[in-house]
Design brief:
This protein is α/β, with parallel strands linked by helices. It has helices at 22-34, 48-63, 96-104, 124-128, 159-169, 178-191, 203-213, 218-226, 231-243, 260-265, 311-318, 336-350; strands spanning 37-42, 67-72, 90-91, 108-112, 134-138, 149-152, 245-248, 253-258, 288-294, 299-305, 322-323, 327-332. The chain has two domains: 2-226, inorganic pyrophosphatase (n-terminal core) (Alpha-Beta Complex); 231-350, Diaminopimelate Epimerase, Chain A, domain 1 (Roll), CATH 3.10.310.30. The chain is built from twelve helices and twelve strands. A hairpin with a 3-residue loop joins strand 11 (322-323) and strand 12.
Length: 360
């Protein structure tokens, strides 16, 4: 199967593992050979990259003869549940004892797409008490490197791309089939927003071409992910833009705020607000956008920006969060009114009236 790729490219190599030291290389290869039972974790509220990475890695390892299970803190949104083998995923929130049993009997665990165990919610103590070896594959900055072997490449646009390189480097790519390739390409497409962000490095297109050569259907993925919305979701989007968006022209910023009542009005389902935060950035005079979504215990924030401004610093400094330079998350404790006032104060101390950054 690997022969498909021979001589396909004459320059460059997307393998981000080529520079690891010899002792780490030997240790990981030994783990991959000797481990029989493997559990794969990813973060709560899993997105396309989290699910795609986990299921793509699962497929390749299973075809290698391993007993592999994906354990998630909670379920994926509906537009991702079509992915191959999603039906085999164990949701900790629904079946904690089964999940714990899998972890207790595991020889090896993979942690994908999160750099801090706080990101896996109620699964955190399960992971922390695991005594065996672990491998972290991630692309988020400022992680805690909690695993036995930590592979974090912040220059990559998705963890799915890192998983592909991992399989390639450790001679597992021959076990990746169409289903696994579909999962990984879904991860790449969703975390780059359809190659709109974090995809300037040509390596991502090289990996995409190789996944497509394995049978991943790019057009099908786009259709499944972006063209399966409900009428309620579309009406919620229209309401968000017409009635819940505030534009701060002098700061080149905007926010959208949605209360629990707003969400209930449009029969909100998990994943319905995915991508809402990006819409204000399509305006020429907006380079910083925030989505406030009221939850039962806090207000969740999604922060996005154009390349010249680092929103992960805002998320870390003010909202107990973090993430990528142009895509981050956080949380606020208080009312929606307080959240908006806080955001407006942050804009005042961060930008001058010309929109220039005065306090990063």
């Amino acid at each position: 199967m690997i022969s498909i790729f021979e001589n396909m490219f004459t320059s460059g190599n997307p393998n981000c593992f080529k520079d690891i030291n010899n002792s780490t290389e030997a240790a990981v290869r030994k783990l991959l050979i000797e481990s029989r039972k493997i559990v794969i974790f990813t973060h709560k509220n899993p997105d396309g990259d989290a699910i795609g990475s986990a299921l793509g890695l699962t497929q390749a390892l299973r075809d290698r003869g391993k007993d592999v299970h994906v354990v998630l803190p909670d379920s994926a949104p509906g537009f991702l549940r079509w992915l191959p083998a999603y039906q085999d995923v164990v949701i900790f929130g629904y079946n904690p004892e089964k999940a714990k049993g899998m972890v207790e009997s595991a020889d090896l665990v993979f942690c994908l797409d999160f750099g801090d165990t706080e990101r896996i919610g109620k699964l955190e103590p399960v992971v922390q008490t695991f005594q065996g070896p672990s491998i972290l594959l991630d692309h988020h900055p400022a992680g805690k490197n909690f695993a036995s072997h930590n592979f974090v490449y912040t220059n990559k646009g998705s963890t799915a791309e890192i998983v592909f390189s991992f399989l390639d480097h450790f001679d597992l790519l021959e076990y990746l089939n169409e289903s696994g390739a579909t999962c990984l390409l879904t991860g790449i497409i969703t975390d780059t927003l359809g190659f709109k962000v974090a995809s300037s490095n040509p390596d991502v297109f090289e990996v995409t071409m190789k996944l497509m050569a394995l049978g991943a259907n790019k057009d099908l993925i786009f259709d499944k992910v972006y063209n399966q919305y409900s009428a309620d979701r579309m009406q919620l989007l229209g309401f968000s833009l017409s009635s819940r968006m505030i534009i701060y022209e002098k700061y080149q910023a905007a926010c959208i705020y949605l209360s629990i009542a707003d969400l209930e009005r449009f029969n909100h389902k998990k994943g319905d607000t995915e991508g809402f935060v990006n819409y204000p950035l399509s305006m020429a005079n907006v380079r910083f956008s925030v989505l406030f979504t009221e939850q039962d215990d806090c207000i969740k924030l999604s922060l996005r920006s154009k390349p010249d401004f680092a929103v992960n610093q805002i998320a870390k400094k003010y909202y107990e969060g973090g993430g990528h330079r142009n895509a981050a998350g956080g949380k606020f404790f208080g009312t929606m009114s307080d959240a908006i006032k806080s955001f407006e104060n942050i804009l005042q101390v961060t930008f001058d009236t010309s929109g220039e950054i005065v306090n990063g």
